[in-house]
């Protein structure tokens, strides 16, 4: 009896509920809502926080080598300058 | 060796990974599970199927950007593992992850919620400020907690990598 009941419940769920349909008429409206003349501006706006975070992260990674290189260049320039005097 | 140790590379990898994971928490929790906002929900409220799908598309573009940021963090972490001048510190890395998540909440909160106003943390209320401020406060707390952990990790000096000492 339990098996039959479970089967009936499953059948009711499978065939009794309304089917989920895609929305074919939505698709052109969605495309028009996204890919229009404002697309690039909106995309840049949305990605602005990500860009700022990448700049901070990458800046921190390259800050030390850049500082060391600038220091070396400065010492090199000062040495050349002092030798010329 | 100890004089040449560089903590910056591991911190930057952790910040990018933490910010990326913070972005995914925002997307998974707020956009999808709780559905309290979408990327453009203040400008285009998702009151019908078309508006909801347009918002979903923009959510996708934002998360694609967050994915790129996470991948960049992973690449930097890989390089850190190959360098002999970068201390492989759990405290520094965990602190950087927290700081990155905090930075995400602060920067995304300030730019998207306060400056541009394209969405708010909880869209379905006339007063957006409390939830927006709570989001910013969580960012500040994470950033401070992360900073404390990074500070604690300054004593860790053992690097992981040995093979490629001069990798930039």
Oligomeric state, counting identical vs distinct chains: heterodimer
Q: Any idea what the shape of chain A is?
A: elongated
Low-pLDDT sequence parts of chain B: none
Mean of the pLDDT scores of chain B?
93
- SSE ordering of chain B: HHHH
Would you identify the regions of chain A where 5 or more consecutive residues have pLDDT less than 50?
A: none
| Major pleated sheet of chain A | none
Class computed from helices, strands and strand pairing of chain B: mainly alpha
Name the beta content range of chain A: under 5%
Give the strand content of chain B: under 5%
General shape of chain B: elongated
First-to-last CA distance of chain B: 16 Å
Structural class of chain A: mainly alpha
Q: Summarize the amount of helix of chain A as a percent range.
A: over 70%
String of helices and strands of chain A: HHH
Average pLDDT for all residues of chain A:
87
Given the structure, what is the number of helices of chain A? 3
What is the count of DSSP helices of chain B, taking H or I runs of 4+ residues? Answer: 4
Task: List how many beta strands of chain B DSSP finds.
Answer: 0
Helix content of chain B: 55-70%
């Amino acid at each position: 009896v339990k098996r039959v009941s479970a089967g009936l419940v499953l059948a009711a769920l499978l065939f009794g509920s309304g089917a989920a349909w895609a929305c074919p008429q939505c698709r052109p409206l969605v495309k028009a809502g996204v890919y229009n003349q404002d697309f690039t501006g909106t995309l840049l706006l949305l990605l602005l926080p990500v860009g700022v975070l990448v700049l901070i992260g990458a800046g921190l990674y390259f800050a030390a080598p850049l500082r060391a290189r600038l220091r070396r260049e400065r010492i090199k320039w000062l040495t050349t300058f002092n030798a010329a005097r | 060796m100890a004089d040449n140790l560089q903590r910056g590379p591991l911190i930057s990898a952790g910040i990018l990974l933490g910010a990326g994971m913070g972005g995914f928490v925002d997307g998974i929790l707020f956009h999808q599970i709780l559905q309290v906002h979408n990327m453009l929900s203040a400008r285009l409220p998702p009151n019908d199927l078309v508006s909801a799908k347009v918002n979903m598309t923009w959510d996708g573009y934002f998360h694609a950007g967050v994915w790129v940021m996470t991948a960049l963090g992973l690449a930097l972490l890989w390089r850190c593992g190959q360098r002999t001048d970068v201390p492989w510190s759990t405290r520094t890395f965990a602190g950087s992850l927290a700081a990155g998540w905090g930075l995400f909440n602060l920067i995304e909160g300030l730019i998207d919620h306060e400056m541009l106003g394209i969405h708010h943390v909880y869209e379905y209320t006339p007063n957006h400020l409390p939830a927006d401020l709570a989001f910013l406060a969580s960012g500040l707390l994470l950033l401070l907690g992360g900073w404390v952990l990074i500070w604690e990790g300054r004593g860790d000096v053992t690097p992981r990598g040995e093979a490629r000492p001069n990798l930039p």
